[in-house]
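in:
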């Protein structure tokens, strides 16, 4: 019976503490000290700035602000620390320095309250860099209770749903998202220096093409038309290449109506770039340079550690055709397989499931997924995909069953996908027609014909190389994060009953 009453008692205790906080706020407001009436506070430094510049700032007055995470009251003097963007800073708070009234108010402040502090920088007897407070202002009253500091916030579901609490309680989480921001800004600087122009293209589209994925659908009331959320950035960026913008890129959200797992979220960040007058070999060279540059800038090393693996980006990335990769890891040479029927027979023999509509190239890709991907730990380009799985890619002139495409792999994951872009409008129409047949046969990820894109190709698109990077996976790799939700500030979650 005692066990049954444990939770209700805990809830009663929490409710009592919350009631006290609300009463404290009411008392402050009655006394004309409502913190929510304060509109600004001049901050001159952050916590880490004080540590980094201690020799310069010792004895100088500084102004900082942050959330109180610890407090120890000792009669006429107290210690507390506040947490800001760059870390924590200890404060020494003495009654005789800030005054009796302010000190009495300070003693009533709660963990989680946001304070503004002015004071002089010094070191305690134990050598800890601190600020001797001369003024403390309550800037915001916390009416909720933070998790207990020793146990922190560890429940992953709560962490993802209440990321704001996660960021407060777990410093490594904040560091991950600071690094995410650095990754994106680093990519932008790199591409800007390479002469690329950043652009923006529509998210709401009538034809969601450029990838094999199911789109989300919506209705636009004003035009009484059904629209889709984009699944790719590709087709609009290629239109810009047609228009004479020779090097373009976009970093933006795309949306795919698919499952959730450690590497997939229905909305995610994609970066696509297109460069006129180059091919997929040019895209490989750019990818190597970009990954090395970002790793060095964000992690300080060209060696990336992820889980039990260590990946060396300093060496030239391995380049393998898909046929050679399957031959290497599965012992099957698809150059020796004459047709689709022979490929299907081999798949049955090896226990690889396929669909009746699949062709020889589809079967090759299934073998690759089954036997090869997990082995691709070090940076590797898998080249020359079968035409059946690459409807927007140029054929290899010497072997038209395959196309000039590569996927970039690390840690057994696909990190990027690139083509020598198909610029023949007649061939592109035939590929779209094949996709329409696949759609009619039950492939709900096949593409619809995009007549406006075909018209753009008919105007004339130069030889072009293009690539798409999954930014979230790149950040996972750079931060050693086990799941995509750990690098998305607000990942997609099933709604709770009170959210609806």
């Amino acid at each position: 019976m005692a066990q049954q009453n444990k939770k209700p008692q805990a809830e009663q205790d929490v409710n009592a503490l919350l009631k006290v906080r609300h009463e404290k706020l009411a008392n402050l407001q009655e006394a004309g000290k409502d913190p929510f009436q304060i509109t600004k506070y001049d901050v001159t430094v952050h916590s880490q700035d004080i540590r980094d510049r201690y020799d310069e700032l010792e004895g100088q007055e500084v102004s900082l602000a942050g959330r109180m995470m610890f407090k120890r009251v000792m009669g006429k003097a107290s210690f507390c620390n506040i947490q800001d963007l760059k870390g924590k800073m200890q404060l020494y708070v003495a009654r005789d320095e800030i005054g009796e009234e302010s000190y009495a108010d300070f003693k009533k402040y709660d963990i989680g309250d946001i304070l503004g502090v002015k004071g002089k920088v010094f070191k305690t007897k134990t050598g800890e860099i601190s600020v001797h407070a001369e003024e403390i202002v309550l800037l915001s009253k916390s009416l909720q209770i933070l998790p207990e500091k020793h146990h922190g916030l560890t429940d992953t579901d709560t962490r993802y749903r209440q990321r704001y609490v996660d960021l407060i309680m777990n410093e490594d989480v904040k560091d991950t998202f600071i690094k995410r921001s650095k990754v994106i800004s680093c990519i932008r600087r790199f591409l800007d220096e390479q002469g690329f122009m950043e652009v923006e293209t529509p998210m709401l589209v009538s034809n969601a093409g450029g990838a094999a994925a199911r789109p989300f659908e919506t209705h636009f009331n004003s035009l009484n038309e059904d629209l889709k959320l984009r699944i790719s950035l590709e087709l609009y960026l290629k239109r810009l290449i047609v228009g004479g913008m020779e090097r373009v890129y976009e970093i933006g959200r795309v949306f795919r109506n698919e499952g959730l797992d450690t590497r997939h979220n229905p909305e995610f960040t994609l970066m696509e770039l297109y460069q006129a007058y180059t091919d997929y070999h040019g895209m490989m060279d750019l990818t190597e340079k970009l990954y090395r540059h970002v790793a060095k800038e964000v992690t300080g090393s060209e060696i990336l550690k992820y889980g039990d693996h260590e990946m060396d980006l300093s060496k030239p990335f391995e380049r393998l055709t898909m046929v050679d990769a399957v031959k290497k890891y599965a012992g099957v040479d698809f150059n020796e397989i004459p047709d689709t029927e022979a490929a299907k027979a081999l798949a049955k023999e090896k226990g690889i499931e396929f669909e009746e509509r699949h062709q020889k190239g589809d079967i090759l890709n299934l073998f690759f997924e089954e036997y090869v991907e997990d082995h691709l730990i070090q940076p590797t380009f898998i080249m020359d995909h079968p035409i059946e799985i690459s409807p927007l890619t140029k054929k290899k002139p010497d072997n038209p069953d395959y196309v000039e495409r590569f996927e970039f792999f690390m840690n057994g994951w696909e990190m990027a996908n690139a083509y020598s872009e198909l610029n023949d409008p007649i061939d592109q129409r035939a590929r779209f027609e094949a996709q329409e047949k696949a759609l009619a046969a039950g492939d709900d990820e096949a593409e619809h014909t995009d007549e406006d894109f075909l018209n753009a190709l008919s105007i004339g698109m130069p030889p072009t190389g293009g690539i798409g990077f999954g930014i979230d996976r790149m950040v996972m790799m750079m931060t050693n994060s086990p799941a995509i939700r750990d690098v998305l500030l607000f990942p997609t979650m099933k709604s709770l009953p009170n959210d609806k």
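note: The chain has a mean pLDDT of 94.
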